[in-house]
Design a protein that fits this description.
By secondary structure, the protein is an alpha+beta fold. It is built from 20 helices and 29 strands.
Length: 781
């Protein structure tokens, strides 16, 4: 467990609220530890940029680079050491302990190697991963960004506590004097709020000098404007763009973008003859908007967080706007961008690499006395330069990604140096892989017992192993009671029902559910936490937060409704599928909708018939699309991946193939450490491999035909469920059963009355979303 990197190593994480941030690993990990605490793994509640491997078409089961993606992190770890290794490679430097392992490239695929065993000439694995084909074309494997992207940004930021206080003041059955005293405002203010004459200043639009839109759609043009602001703007109580007097094209472009996006013209244009022009937009809400997404001044600028999940054209436009202010393209086509803000350059560097561009960073000392846009002389400082060669510069006319040059991160030197401080690690990532470093390098770590020093396992030392399994229903009930102490609960809360509704949850998941339920109750200004709050919290932990602001067309809404109805109807008619708990077309997390099936009891053994029914259910969405629309969409991508993995496991791991018999093929669990291949050891012939592929294909296609047959026979039920989903957006278990049984669905319950806000539980770190054991897993669209 001692394999770790130094605290200044950048990693890219996605927080629970969906924000993507590039932070030093120490800043991420230290928040889980008390001062002086070390040597103990702590549960984590975020995702990190990791690896999704690619299937080996040759059937060798080697670990091949597929693409990067955000993967759950089980825990974090830190401890103190007195020496580290510094690895210098073409593209950067990374520092780690000698027993840390990193991925290196070989002809057989990706393998791991201990840092202490690395040699000059070894090739690390970095983003982007470029593969030379037998032809002249090159494949570039990097991050997989969504092709469809739709987002709106609220222009005004309403503090939740002020909104809650205002709503309470209006609805509270108390005298005005009591309300004013409780909130610390005057009685006149309280009276005007109640009579609807005024709003709190931070909620009011009247105080704004300009009529601004409530929300702004994210477009490539907005990204270019934000790029201009990152290079040449600052915000206080106004938004100011400062450009050189000769930058006529950029000035006109900024004015046009501000006019088209926000409907604003500059109130003032300050000119300094022969030096600079300042476009001034005096709007505090607009200034706050730019500050939230880019920063206020040069020293705290950053890349908008949504760019880490936006398609390529959005990033290119941001880069274009930023490069026009702080960059230049030389005669050879090389782009260089300069800034005193290291964080901004690092974020741009990671984004370039994630999009398959081979960027680089250099550092230099900026001389004293230089001026920006005719401003005051500046002192000497360290500056950072981001570079993109001609073949990696997307701003050049006619640029093509396929022409990008492959620069391999070849190790130049490895040296051991003294070090006194903490080193850090992420535990339990998928494939034990995550990206870290100024240039993103694929790092590896494991805490499996088979790689521990045998001396630690000798009799008389640590010769006893304690297995900590997931708690059963009684254990979960006991854990719920621990975390519910001191919480104001409504009379309808039944702890035993909560325990049965959370199979597969561990203690950290349950703590997360309790905390989320308290937060939901507080947002509704309720005095007590109700059962409905807990149900919504459980769904949030399993599938992510609701995204009601996501805009989808009516056609997409119909497709998602039929897709989810297909899952639910197939599950209803299959005896081994878990009962449907909820069907919704409201997006959660990255899914457009989902069908949630909860088991009625904990399960430790899984039958072949259960697997076959689950496969048919997972394919019900795609089958419904084909039956109703005569076409298929990408909404079933995750379903197909799960079904294929399950079918292959049935054949190769569980001996559930009638043709191949009760045999295990390959040694999937043997992920070898320290320089050996990370792969399944193939112990069967090419002919058997073909039979395995044929059996997997047969199982998947039989499940698909079974799903189509059920939906064709019960087309009326599919239509009824889909139409009700389009109407109500969410169906609970009772409503779904009523539709399937031909009864009238029950009337929707009236919303709960709000009350004064309770205090939410202190946030506690949680484990990743359960799904590795017999946990309830939603089927997303």
């Amino acid at each position: 467990m001692a394999a770790s990197v130094t605290g200044d190593t950048p990693i890219l994480i996605k927080e629970r609220d969906g924000r993507v941030r590039l932070l030093p690993i120490a800043e991420v990990v230290d928040r889980y530890y008390a001062p002086g605490e070390e040597g103990v793994e702590k549960p984590a509640d975020f995702m990190a940029l990791g690896l999704v491997p690619r299937h080996d078409p040759r059937g060798n089961h080697a670990l091949l680079f597929g693409h990067s993606a955000f993967v759950p992190v089980r825990g974090v770890f830190r401890h103190r050491v007195n020496e580290i290794y510094e690895i210098e490679f073409a593209g950067g430097t990374i520092r780690a302990t000698g027993n840390h392992s990193v991925f290196v490239r070989t002809r057989q695929g990706l393998v791991t190697k201990a840092v202490a065993e690395l040699q000059p000439g070894d090739v690390l694995v970095a983003l982007p991963y470029k593969v030379n084909r037998t032809s002249r074309a090159r494949a570039v494997r990097a991050h997989r960004f969504p092709q469809a992207f739709s987002m709106e940004l609220p222009l005004y930021e309403e503090p939740e506590e002020i909104r809650a206080a205002y709503e309470w003041a209006v609805a509270a059955p108390l005298p005005q004097a009591a309300v004013a005293a409780a909130l610390g405002v005057s009685q006149t203010t309280s009276s005007k709020w109640r009579r609807g004459l005024h709003l709190p200043r931070s909620l009011s639009r009247v105080t704004s000098r300009h009529a601004l839109p409530e929300k702004v759609p994210v477009t490539p043009e907005l990204c270019r404007l934000l790029g201009y602001f990152a290079a040449d703007g600052y915000s206080r109580k106004e938004v100011v763009f400062s450009l050189g007097a000769d930058e006529h094209e950029e000035i006109e472009d900024i004015r046009r973008l501000m006019r088209e996006i926000f409907g604003l013209e500059p109130d003032r244009i300050r000119e300094e003859p022969g030096q600079a022009i300042h476009l001034v937009y005096p709007s505090k809400p607009l200034a706050d908007f730019f500050a939230r997404h880019v920063g206020r001044t040069a020293w705290n600028k950053h890349v908008p967080a949504f760019l880490f999940e936006a398609p390529f054209e959005y990033f290119v436009e941001f880069l274009r706007g930023y490069a026009r202010g702080d960059g230049y393209i030389d005669a050879r086509g090389k782009l260089e961008i300069t800034s005193v803000n290291r964080q901004l350059i690092l974020e741009l560097h990671w984004l370039c690499r994630m999009h398959g561009l081979n960027s680089y960073i250099s550092t230099f000392r900026a001389r004293a006395g230089r001026r920006i846009a005719g401003g005051k002389p500046l002192p000497a400082t360290r500056a950072y330069r981001l570079g993109l060669g001609r073949w990696d510069n997307p701003l050049l006319p006619g640029w093509q990604r396929e022409n990008s040059r492959a620069h391999l991160p070849v190790i130049r030197s490895v040296r051991r140096i003294p070090y006194d401080g903490y080193v850090y690690d992420l535990c339990g990532c998928q494939y034990e892989a995550f990206f870290g470093g100024e240039t993103p390098i694929l790092l590896h770590n494991t805490n499996r017992p088979d790689i521990l020093d045998p001396a630690l396992l000798r009799p008389g030392r640590f010769d006893r192993r304690v297995i900590l399994d997931r708690p059963d229903v009684k254990g979960r009930e006991a854990i719920f009671r621990v975390h519910l102490r001191g919480k104001p609960l409504d009379d309808d809360v039944d702890v035993s029902v909560l325990a049965r509704a959370t199979p597969g949850f561990v203690g950290a998941d349950i703590a997360n559910v309790v905390n989320e339920a308290a937060i939901l109750a507080a947002r509704k200004n309720k005095k007590k936490i109700s059962m409905k709050d807990f149900e919504e919290a459980i769904e949030k932990v399993i599938a992510g937060p609701e995204r009601k602001s996501r805009i989808i067309t009516e056609r997409e809404k119909r497709i998602i409704a039929y897709h989810e109805a297909g899952h639910a109807v197939v599950a209803y008619y299959l005896p081994n599928c878990d009962p449907i708990h909820k069907v919704t077309i409201i997006p959660r997390g990255m899914a457009g909708g989902y069908t949630l099936a909860l088991p009625q009891e904990d399960r430790t053994l899984w039958t072949r018939s259960k697997f076959l029914d689950d496969m048919a259910m997972a394919l019900g969405g795609r089958a419904a699309e084909e039956i109703v629309f005569g076409d298929i969409t990408t909404g079933a991508a995750e379903d197909l991946e799960r079904v294929t993995e399950l079918a292959r496991a049935m054949v190769t791991r569980y001996g559930m193939s009638e043709k191949l018999g009760p045999m295990v093929f390959g040694k999937k669990e043997e992920l070898i450490f320290l320089g050996k291949e990370i792969a399944e050891q193939r112990d069967y012939s090419d002919a058997v491999a073909q039979e395995i592929d044929a059996e997997v294909r047969r199982l998947v296609m039989e499940a698909y035909e079974r799903a189509k047959r059920i939906l064709t026979e019960h087309r009326d039920k599919l239509e009824a469920v889909a139409q009700k989903l389009i109407e109500m957006e969410t169906l609970d278990a009772e409503t779904f059963r009523a539709i399937m049984e031909g009864r009238l669905p029950p009337e929707p319950k009236a919303p709960e009355a709000p009350g004064p806000s309770p205090q939410p539980a202190a946030p506690q770190p949680s484990a990743p979303t359960p799904g590795t054991g017999p946990a309830p897993v939603p089927v997303p669209a």
